[in-house]
Amino acid sequence: MYTLELLTSYAEILLWGMRSSRAVPFKNGDLVLLRFDVAATPLAEAVYAALMEAHLHPVPQAMPTSFMQAQHYGNSSFGQLTFAQPGLADLHRAAAGLITILAPDSLTDLAEVDPRSIAQGERAEQKAGAVLGRRRRNGLLGSTVCLYPTSALAEASGMELDEYAERLARACLLFMPSPVAQWKRVQQELAETAAWLNSLRIRLIHVESAHIDLAMDTGDSRRFVGVSGRNVPSFELYLAPDWRTVNGVYFADQPSIRWGRVVRGARLEFHEGVAVEAAAEAGGTFLSGRMASDAGARSVGEFSLTDKRISRVERFMAHTLLDENYGGDSGNCHIALGGASAASFTGPAQELTPERQEALGFNSSSMHWDLVNTEPKRVTAVLAGGGRRDIYEDGQFLL
User: What is the DSSP string of 214-268?
Assistant: First the structure.
């Protein structure tokens, strides 16, 4: 799929991303979990070699295939569904790094599985995953996630595999001279834009497009944040708004593929932070079911903007990791239903306790579902000192 040179460059980017997302430097002998889908073995091998070269201890873990996932979630007893792998929590407590390479061999195997069973299984898996989350918040875990091209992704996006692989490589800056240096440049550029947005002391954000009229307060102790290394590629700037203040209508014109279902044309109407109406041109029943999964699933955990001048994601790629960074002709905004990221908190992440999270309006949910709008739009900010200012239009920030 990719030449050895491209695989080596990709591996170097992933190590950079993992290191960048950790608050403390790695030292020789640190343990790094290397999770990968089987189809991504060539890249996993390149990453393994890079980790060895860096004097780290890679622990490779092949993830279940789509068939295995369908069996686990759809053909299991309750005991099997909630089974906790022995020793996994201890392994997570020892991990200094985590690199995840996604390469789905099918996007439809879960289509016939009851979403409630999948949710139950994921909740059981999240218990061990919570250990990694705590280490990440304490600055002790560096992590990154990326995508490897597969026929399933290419087919779902309407491309041949060769074209999909080329577009993915371009989005990850693999064809650029010194790709890591290029990612550092993107990181710096977005950091400067985030600093400008944060300096405006924005109190309220108003988004308008052909099908969107949505307003939300930024909330206290918030900041816009950009490239951290945790996602490759990443071109967005995002904020965790005060979920209680979200009002108006949001529309996702870009399809979203989740658990084997396609949700297209999702329209959500919010009142005082809760989506009181939800409909979709396709997949509406599934959308409504997921929004009933827990108390925070009907509220917004994230608001994001992507500048078309920076993004290298040029079309629909059938995976949120890429699609939430879509640039295209008009950039994109997206909201995430569900849990908010602690990265948007202005203080140390470990200080964002559940009690403070609730007081500040950081949404809490086991779900995090990005829904993307690519229409031409205007985003206006109401400033703390009074007055209004357009901050985004025609797919770009208005510095």
Answer: EEEE--SSB--B---SSBSS--EEEE---GGG-EEEEEE-S-EEETTEEEBSEEE
What's the domain range around 366?
A: 181-397
| Cα–Cα distance for residue pair 371/213, rounded to 1 Å | 15
- State pTM to two decimals: 0.95
Name the packing angle between helices 115-137 and 284-291 (round to 10°). Answer: 50
- Asked if residue 78 is part of any domain, the answer here is yes
CB atoms within 10 A of CB 188: 12
Encoding tokens for residue 4? 């050895």
- 156 and 321 in contact (C-beta within 8 Å)? no
Sign of CA dihedral 366, 231, 196, 212: negative
Pick the closest to residue 115 from 369, 372, 370 (CA basis).
Answer: 369
Residue 264 CB neighbour total at 10 angstroms: 16
- Structure-token match 């079309």, residue found: 315
Q: Do residues 82 and 223 both lie within one domain?
A: no
Task: Measure the CA–CA gap between 266 and 243, rounded to whole angstroms.
Answer: 19
In a domain, 305, yes or no: yes
Task: For residue 271, tell me if it sits in a domain.
Answer: yes
For residue 170 the two structure tokens come to 């371009």
Number of domains forming the structure of the chain? 2
User: From the DSSP assignment, how many helices (H) and strands (E) are in the chain?
Assistant: 12, 18
Does any domain span residue 166?
A: no
Is residue 260 located within the same domain as residue 365? Answer: yes
pLDDT tens string, the chain, 399 residues long: the values are 799 999 999 999 999 999 999 999 999 999 999 999 999 999 999 999 999 999 999 999 999 999 999 999 999 999 999 898 899 999 999 999 999 999 999 999 999 999 889 988 888 888 788 899 889 988 999 999 999 999 999 999 999 999 999 999 999 999 999 999 999 999 999 999 999 999 999 999 999 999 999 999 999 999 999 999 999 999 999 999 999 999 999 999 999 999 999 999 999 999 999 999 999 999 999 999 999 989 999 999 999 999 999 999 999 999 999 999 999 999 999 999 999 988 999 998 888 899 999 999 999 998 999 999 999 999 999 999 889 999 999 999 999
Angle between helices 115-137 and 66-74 (to 10 degrees): 110
> Does residue 134 sit in the same domain as residue 236?
no
